[in-house]
Amino acid sequence: MVRFIEVSHRVVPGMKTYPGLPEPTVDMIMDYESSRERYGGNAEFLIASLHLCGNTGTYIDSPHHRYPAGVDLADLPLERLAHLPTLVVDATRAGRAIGPDVFRGITLAGHAVLVRTDFSRHWGTEAYFTDHPFLSADSAEVLVRARPAFVGIDSLNIDDTADLSRPAHSRLLGAGIPVCEHLTDLAKVPRTGGLLHAVPIAWVGGASFPVRAYVIAEGS
Predict the structure, then answer these.
(1) Residue 15 lies inside a defined structural domain of this protein
(2) Could you tell me the residue range of the domain that residue 66 belongs to?
(3) For residue 17, what are the CA distances in angstroms to 23, 34, 77, 160?
(4) 24 belongs to a structural domain
(5) What letters, b where the CB count within 10 A reaches 16 and e where it falls short, cover 34-60?
(6) The total number of structural domains that make up the chain
(7) What does the DSSP assignment read for the chain?
(8) Are 142 and 180 contacting, i.e. CB atoms less than 8 angstroms apart?
(9) Along the 220 residues of the chain, how does pLDDT read in single tens digits?
(10) Is residue 48 in a domain?
(11) Is residue 150 part of a domain?
(12) What CATH number is attached to the domain comprising 128?
């Protein structure tokens, strides 16, 4: 039996993803009632406009997020976003600054490395915006050398937000490795054997954008 495991947050109007960034809003262009006359009473449709920051909910950062000449969302290879073998790395006991020891002895090349901290349990509360787990600069170096296809974390940021140099973003995106933040429910994902899909829109010039991320896994 095949399971589909959702690992992304739902987008709802007014939700907060990161302090200071705009929250999503919805403008109704046509609702069911107003559309009936347009379609002669034979059909009705809903058309709405969603306004959001690219860094909303669970999203992908392309190299263009960090580097002006970096690859944008439209040019990110699908091979780095879809049908990727997953490797869940348990960092739930690693402390706030997740060091390289959690990655030692693991073959990471070509995998979607999903760093599980379980910090996503705070999603939707003020606690989510303080003292979040993050990857140390040394961890980012280890990952770059190991050549994963993709790196994600179930936390506010892959970096310590107090470190303005953003070493994890800088090293991973500099190596062409997409970063995914604000994952959720990684406890439901098997350590190995799953396949991740986390594809944003092909936005030319876009740096970051939400995804509906999910893992396909075998078993009940």
Answers:
(1) no
(2) 2-6+54-218
(3) 8, 33, 26, 16
(4) no
(5) eeeeeeeeeeeeeeeeeebbbbbbbbb
(6) 1
(7) -EEEEE-SPPP-TT--SSTTSPPPEEEEEE-HHHHHHHTTTS----EEEEE--SS-SSEEEPGGGT-TTS--GGGS-GGGTEEEEEEEEE-TTS-SEE-GGGGTT---TTSEEEEE--GGGGTTSGGGGSS--EE-HHHHHHHHHH--SEEEESSS-SS-TT-TT-HHHHHHHHTT--EEES---GGGS-SEEEEEE------TT--EEE---EEEEE--
(8) no
(9) 899 999 999 999 999 999 999 999 999 999 999 999 999 999 999 999 999 999 999 999 999 999 999 999 999 999 999 999 999 999 999 999 999 999 999 999 999 999 999 999 999 999 999 999 999 999 999 999 999 999 999 999 999 999 999 999 999 999 999 999 999 999 999 999 999 999 999 999 999 999 999 999 987 6
(10) no
(11) yes
(12) 3.50.30.50
Which position has the token pair 């350590």?
Answer: 191
